[in-house]
Design goal:
Helices cover 31% and strands 22% of the residues. The chain is α+β, with helices and mostly antiparallel strands and 195 residues long. The strands form 2 sheets. The chain has a 7-stranded antiparallel beta sheet with strand order 1-7-8-5-2-6-9.
Length: 195
């Protein structure tokens, strides 16, 4: 699959290394520990209130210095290819699709978010790689983004239990989904043969 994905990559036209955009769709590869159900007790196969990025994910991002490593969706072609061209791809199983235009439309901070083109030459070669960061390049930009994604939800760990909380959670999920969509188990793995 890796070879096929490498062949399909289409470099963003007219972009030099270090050039930036403030719009577009980007895919963030996620490990198992990076994704959690929004509310405990929701159906894990088809959760009503969706998934969220875990505290582990945000801690890992903080260590990265306030930049989200992503692949441009059109360039990479598919969720599975985004993971296939990732170093240590076996660690990644899920995708977060980030709509940068929606992030900026939310006006969560004085500084806009941008995607800086930063293709990688090390193997596997990734012509689709960007770093999402706040325009002023501060770590606090990512903290503000985390608040935007989590604050609208009711502050309960288990399923909302009254109509007001349920509606608030559904409205928050709709807002969350307009900015970031989490898709689970998108990378095909070979099932080991037994016997």
């Amino acid at each position: 699959m890796l070879e096929e994905c490498l062949e399909k990559q289409t470099s963003p036209e007219g972009l030099n290394v270090g050039a930036s955009r403030d719009s577009g769709l980007y895919l963030r590869n996620l490990k198992n520990g990076h994704v959690k159900l929004r509310f405990q007790g929701d159906d894990p196969s088809i959760p009503v209130y969706g998934h969220k990025l875990s505290a582990e994910f945000w801690k890992d991002e903080k260590r990265q210095g306030g930049q989200l490593s992503v692949n441009e969706k059109n360039c990479v072609g598919s969720d599975a290819c985004s993971i296939a061209i990732q170093k240590c791809s076996e660690r990644y199983h899920h995708i977060a699709e980030i709509d940068l235009s929606a992030v900026n439309a939310a006006k969560i901070s004085e500084s806009r978010f941008i995607a800086v083109y930063s293709p990688t030459d090390d193997l596997p070669v990734n012509k689709c790689h960007f770093e999402i960061q706040s325009e002023d390049s501060t770590v606090t930009g990512m903290q503000v983004l985390q608040c935007l994604l989590d604050d609208p939800f009711p502050e309960c760990k288990s399923l909302p239990n009254n109509e007001l909380e349920k509606q608030k959670a559904l409205d928050a999920f709709e807002s969350f989904n307009a900015i970031i969509k989490i898709r689970c188990s998108v990378y095909p793995r070979e099932v080991p043969k037994t016997g």
